[in-house]
Amino acid sequence: MKTSFGRFSFCLEFTLRKHFFISVWLYLLESNRLKHKWQLMTISRHYDNIYLIGPMGAGKSTIGRQLAKTRNCSFVDSDREIEARTGVSIATVFEYEGESGFRKREQQMIEEQVKQSPIVLATGGGVVLSESNREALRTNGFVVYLSCSVDKLLRRTRTDSSRPLLQTSNRRQRIDDLMREREPLYQQCAHFVVNTGEFPTKSAVRLILEAFEAHNDQH
What we know:
The protein is of the alpha/beta class. 65% of the residues lie in helices and 10% in strands.
C-alpha cells in the first residue's frame, strides 16, 4: 500500500513538474513572439521624414535641399542650425566646448528635429556615434546613408577649413580612421544606402525618393 502510494506521489509530482515546465516554455515562446512582433511593428512604419547620414563631404546638404524641394517640405541641416542658435561656427563650438560639448548640442538638436514633420534632415558626420541619436533617427524617419569612397571625400573636402576633425597634417588618414569607426554605425542605422560617388545629385535624389515611396507603400 505504501509502495502504491509512493508511486502515485511520484507520478503526481512528475506530472505537475512536467506541466509547469511546459507552461514556462509556452510563456517564453509567446513572449519571444510578442517581442519579435513588436520589433516588426517598430521597424515597419510609414514615415513622413527623410534623414540623411554619412561622412563629411558625402553630399548630405546638397542632396537634402533637392529632396526637400521635390517633396515640398522643410529642409534642416543640423550643423547649420546649431551655428544659427549659438551664433558661432562649429569650429568655434569645438574650440571652446570640445567635441563632447558639441555632441551634447547635436543630441539636443536631433531630439528636437525628429519631432518635426514632414522634413528632410541632413545630419553631421558623427551623429551616429550616439546610440540615442541612432535610435531617434531610425524610429522617426526613413534613414538614408550617403556613402562615398575615401578618395572622393578627400577631393571634396581638400579646401574646406571649416571642419574641426579634418584639421590635421594627414587628412587622408583622418578620413580613413573616421570611416573605419563610423561605417558599421551608418550601415546599422540606415534603411537605405546610396553611393554618392557613383551617382550625380539628380540620380541620387531619384533613387532615394523611389526607395522612400516603396517603403511607405509596403507599410
